[in-house]
Amino acid sequence: MKPIVVYTDAFWALEDGEVNPALATVEQEVFGDKVEMRFGVTENGAYVKSGERFLDNLKGASALAIYRAQMTEDVFDTIRGDVKVIGRQGVGYDNIGLPFLKPNGIFGFNVPDYCVDEVSTHTLSLLLSLERHVCLQNDHLKKGHWDIYDGGYPRRLRGLTVGIIGLGRIGKSTAQKIRSFYGRVIGHDPYVHGDHMIGYGVEKRHTLPELLNEADVVILHCLLNDDTKNLVDQAFLNEMKSDALLVNTARGGLVDPQSVHNALAESRIGGYASDVFTPEDPNENEWNRKLLPFEKVIVTSHRSFLSAESELSQRRRVAEEILHVLETGQPPRWGSLTD
User: Can you spell out the DSSP letters for 159-224?
Assistant: First the structure.
């Protein structure tokens, strides 16, 4: 009997709101006839990611490939003894149920480096659009209002300091690219030594207040965990300069949207750009929705990772690692979360 690999919520497999298994071209190349693929259940054009129907669909699986679905205790109660490996189709692993993996004898992995170039480039795109008032000018001019001063004077970047919180793969890539525009880059990451940061042109700041007091731009590239949930709160924002810009291309849960809303309404920060929200669509949260009308806010739909190349690479690597574990019983070779 072939092992079953369940793709719980593969965004690339949806076509007109329904799963189309024929779109799994990369996966078929990797798996061949060695496994049976099963996809998540849908409702109203979207994947069901919790509840009885979701759990029933996991039964009998040997492996899971997850995207945004949360691996809760209920999930592990359902898959215990059957599932050998869970692959996260992305960089973050806050939804993979990390505390439950080892106790249940399940390998877990992510793909931490498939979109480093894309996310760092998207970060700069959002930031430079804020700095040069590109979106505001675009919106107003298309409505018939031509004015070179519309939005006010942009800042001269060479005299400004960028502060990056989180100097992992993506943070370091952003640091290297951003030095072409800004005068200085500082960073805060308790897990990265200052000597290492220097190699990327970044000066280490040992505390968040040090970085926030100094930075004209604050960029979030840190992981979401118990220590960083709602990291950006009122106290955080109060430490920022009143004209500083905040950019988040990491995780929505890092930011308390009510605090950001209040800071913008009171002109305590200069602007906000974000690719990520909790829940995913900012229109589904009261305070995220209230952020959208601000002219100094730029948003995108959690697509900073996206390019044709990055998506195909991520899909192939997830399939290859799942097959490796199923065939050998050995841990994943790349991105293992259970070493």
Answer: G-EEEEE--SHHHHHHHHHHTTTSSEEEEE-TTS-HHHHHTTT-EE-SSHHHHHHH-SEEEE-PPP
